């Protein structure tokens, strides 16, 4: 099979790394890809639908996988399907589950899918009145896409009121924050659960945990994710089954009932509360950086899984009995302003692997070309060993003024499992 992966980040590189290991794939294209991809790079941006379709036709591409959310919400999958091309991802109508927080919250309310209580607002005064009535901590979200940065978990009333003002009055996220969702703050441990979905067919993957805040101790601004590991140890008994049976399956069924059947990767960002898992957010594609730690543990041939799901067959997912952890190296200043073109140290492997996210090639080797530059990951028998491998390898970035990484990815879970074993 000839396969094309659309996108340029770490998620897409991870997809390509996994596909490259498969005997069923004869040719891999990345449009546009990044400097690390083991594929032929195609200089077409993710948003140029006509050129992407033309390329897929001219090169007899058998399967196209759309990585990022923006082209999905712009209807790239619909355009490929109109052209009679096989493509994996949700339609524009189904991708709205990520494209509008208000749509997703209303869907969950209508179909009794567990999530935080909320209200949506387009005017600032009613939003502020609601925030004052509910008190802090409280969560303020831009309705539309804001590259993972449109969420403020406000610990104080002032912070929440400022966030509402910034989004609705000052247009902080442009079109994305013309409407906001204000929801109750949920206490608990977060985890992510992705599934391959075709209409009512739901094939869940293993759990993962992402770390969204920029700095150690879960401090600093929200980012696209600073590191992850899979699977998540010490979830409450029954939490996984509940998430599949009471969240993923009913959501897939609800999308069919709404006339927006979902085909692709449904990503549920979940939180374990005293009342069981609840939904924080849905995404309409592979999570980043969760994909980088989930896919290395998949035993199936990935392209066969995509084909099986598209053709209505159960892919019978199989997973290694192992753990995978990954830590993101980011440009200094991220998620705010940062410089590009900074030299990236040569990464030797060994017990680790590297996933490129924001890199380019210069005469002198790899240079940074994004906020999240790369992820160093490791597969191991357990989480402490995987993390030790990664952090040993990351020492070469110590003292480097151009980049930073979090030194506490997964550590709270390691501590929790150790105290759990002591009991």
From TrEMBL:
<dbReference type="InterPro" id="IPR013815">
    <property type="entry name" value="ATP_grasp_subdomain_1"/>
</dbReference>
<dbReference type="InterPro" id="IPR016185">
    <property type="entry name" value="PreATP-grasp_dom_sf"/>
</dbReference>
<dbReference type="InterPro" id="IPR020560">
    <property type="entry name" value="PRibGlycinamide_synth_C-dom"/>
</dbReference>
<comment type="pathway">
    <text>Purine metabolism; IMP biosynthesis via de novo pathway; N(1)-(5-phospho-D-ribosyl)glycinamide from 5-phospho-alpha-D-ribose 1-diphosphate: step 2/2.</text>
</comment>
<dbReference type="InterPro" id="IPR011761">
    <property type="entry name" value="ATP-grasp"/>
</dbReference>
<dbReference type="InterPro" id="IPR037123">
    <property type="entry name" value="PRibGlycinamide_synth_C_sf"/>
</dbReference>
<dbReference type="GO" id="GO:0046872">
    <property type="term" value="F:metal ion binding"/>
</dbReference>
<dbReference type="InterPro" id="IPR000115">
    <property type="entry name" value="PRibGlycinamide_synth"/>
</dbReference>
<dbReference type="InterPro" id="IPR020559">
    <property type="entry name" value="PRibGlycinamide_synth_CS"/>
</dbReference>
<dbReference type="InterPro" id="IPR011054">
    <property type="entry name" value="Rudment_hybrid_motif"/>
</dbReference>
<dbReference type="GO" id="GO:0009113">
    <property type="term" value="P:purine nucleobase biosynthetic process"/>
</dbReference>
<feature type="domain" description="ATP-grasp">
    <location>
        <begin position="105"/>
        <end position="311"/>
    </location>
</feature>
<keyword id="KW-0547">Nucleotide-binding</keyword>
<keyword id="KW-0658">Purine biosynthesis</keyword>
<dbReference type="Pfam" id="PF02844">
    <property type="entry name" value="GARS_N"/>
</dbReference>
<dbReference type="InterPro" id="IPR020562">
    <property type="entry name" value="PRibGlycinamide_synth_N"/>
</dbReference>
<dbReference type="GO" id="GO:0006189">
    <property type="term" value="P:'de novo' IMP biosynthetic process"/>
</dbReference>
<keyword id="KW-0067">ATP-binding</keyword>
<comment type="similarity">
    <text>Belongs to the GARS family.</text>
</comment>
<dbReference type="Pfam" id="PF01071">
    <property type="entry name" value="GARS_A"/>
</dbReference>
<protein>
    <recommendedName>
        <fullName>Phosphoribosylamine--glycine ligase</fullName>
        <ecNumber>6.3.4.13</ecNumber>
    </recommendedName>
</protein>
<dbReference type="GO" id="GO:0004637">
    <property type="term" value="F:phosphoribosylamine-glycine ligase activity"/>
</dbReference>
<dbReference type="Pfam" id="PF02843">
    <property type="entry name" value="GARS_C"/>
</dbReference>
<dbReference type="InterPro" id="IPR020561">
    <property type="entry name" value="PRibGlycinamid_synth_ATP-grasp"/>
</dbReference>
<dbReference type="GO" id="GO:0005524">
    <property type="term" value="F:ATP binding"/>
</dbReference>
<keyword id="KW-0436">Ligase</keyword>
